[in-house]
Amino acid sequence: RPVWTTETRTVERHGRDVVFVVDVSRSMLAQDLAPNRLTRARLAILDTLEVLSGGRVALVAFAGTAVVKSPLTFDYGFVRLAVERLSSESVSRGGTLTGDALRVVRDSVFGGQVSSFRDVILITDGGDLGSLPLQAASELGALGSRIITVGLGNELTGQPIPDPSDPGEYLRHNG
Q1: Which label site among 7, 62, 73, 170 has the fewest CB atoms less than 10 Å from its CB?
Q2: Average pLDDT over the chain, rounded to whole?
């Protein structure tokens, strides 16, 4: 039977805080990875969630803006659902502002607090529109966070970017 108690217990924490920061710009729809880069990113995150245990996870989607899709949580089911719903329409503005996404992690997810048990997994096809990503990464590093970058795509050949609103049409060629 459930019982309330005023006894204070110290809970030992095992695990790390892991934040997945995913580029959802239209260039992630390029099909040099089957079926496309964004789907491959989603599958990789879902696979990683299967082997994580004991730590909190969060999800941030970015393109021209960055949005926290899941705050740090032990609820892996909620994060899975958020990952499955990622699309090129997950944020309101196009572009690629990686530095801004890292600052959202610093301020909104981590609250500017220092900790040595944090990993930021940045998944992108590269490029940035002047948001100073190296400076933002240094700021996160100064707070004790490790940044792991996963690059998707083929920079040598490039790929056309499908128009999500008009199947069969392309927006432009991306490298």
Answers
A1: 7
A2: 89
